[in-house]
Structures are given as C-alpha cells and as structure tokens.
Design goal:
35% of the residues lie in helices and 25% in strands. By secondary structure, the protein is of the alpha+beta class.
C-alpha cells in the first residue's frame, strides 16, 4: 500500500475514533471492578470488626456483672463466669479471647486502688476455659477513674482482649487487630467478693 493511502487510512481512523463506542463497557468494567470489590470486602470486614468489638464490650460487662453478684467465688465459679462470658462472642470464635477478673480495694487514706485478688483465663483451641496466673499481684496499685475512688469500697474489674483476624484481609490488617475493653462493677450482695478467704481483706 502506498504511503499516501496508508496516511489517508490513518486519518480516517483517527477521525472516526471519537465516535467509536465499541469496547467502552468492557473497559469501564475492568477499571471499576477492582475498586468495587475492594469497597465491598472493606465494608464487610469493617462491619464484622465493629460487631466483634461490641461483643468484646459485652463480654467485659458480663464477666464483671456475674462476679459482682456473688459473695464468694471459687476457681470453678470463675471458670463458669469466663465460659458464659465467652459464649457472647458466638458466632465468632472465642479461641483468641484473654480475660482477667480482679477485685480492687480503695484505700480510704490514699484513695488508691489495691489488688486483693486476680484471676486470668484463656480459651484454648477446643473452646474450653483455661485458668491461669494474672499479671496483677496482690497489693499492686491500679489506676482507676476518679469517680470510682471512694475510700473503703471494693470494685470488680474485668479486662477482655480479643484478636480479630479478618476473613479476607485485603483491606484490613491481615495479621489481625487486637480489640479490648474493661469494666468496673460494685459488689452487689456484700461489701466484697471473697476468693480463697472468709473475710473481706484490705491488703
């Protein structure tokens, strides 16, 4: 083909290009689908994360509430409290849950909260509660909100930590996000909740 004819053909093709709509839908589809999929999975994972975070808060509240309704607790009682609280996480797996229940005594002279007793637990791979040692030791000083610093009173303090691992992980952290919450509750049936003692201690 002579160069003049080739040049003429190219000019006609260039002039017709703005009016040629073939392949537009396919091009738009290829450009939009990745964005839409990212947004979809992002919304799904974010919504699940918010739901789990709310359940973690409920677990902390339930754990302190159940403990505060007792006058005396044993390891068996605490295991039941931990198990009942972890059940709130259903339908999400409770395996990454770590919980701690602690009783605090507010010193009347200093208004500082001291640990009386503390117990921790984890949920193993089979879903059973495993009691363990708490990081809080008796007589440890714990910072509490000023509104709760009432001298001569006791507080039940629950802490819950849960590692939420997204199912997809393309939008949120693949390794997971640690969600946690804590709650303070006053003993309801007596001045304190006794654990391995017959009197309310003031360590």
């Amino acid at each position: 083909m002579p160069i003049s004819q080739l040049w003429s053909c190219l000019r006609r093709s260039a002039a017709a290009l703005p009016n040629d709509c073939r392949g537009v839908a396919a091009t738009e589809f290829v450009m939009i689908v990745p964005l839409m999929l990212t947004m979809f999975f992002g919304v799904v994972e974010f919504s699940s994360g918010v739901a789990v975070d709310r359940k973690v808060t409920l677990v902390a509240r339930t754990l302190s509430d159940l403990t505060s309704q007792s006058t005396t607790v044993t390891d068996a009682d605490l295991s039941n409290f931990f198990a009942a609280s972890a059940g709130i996480l259903t339908p999400y797996s409770a395996t990454p849950t770590q919980s701690t229940i602690t009783e605090l005594y507010v010193d009347p002279s200093t208004l500082k909260a001291r640990v009386q007793w503390s117990k921790a637990s984890t949920i193993n791979s089979s879903g059973s509660v495993v009691l363990g040692s708490s990081s809080h030791l008796p007589s440890d000083i714990i910072a509490i909100p000023a509104a709760l610093a009432v001298g001569g009173t006791y507080l039940i303090w629950s802490e819950v930590s849960y590692k939420y691992v997204p199912a997809v992980g393309y939008v949120m952290a693949k390794a997971g996000i640690t969600l946690s919450d804590l709650t303070y509750t006053r003993p309801r049936q007596s001045n304190c909740v006794m654990y391995k003692t017959t009197v309310c201690t003031t360590l």
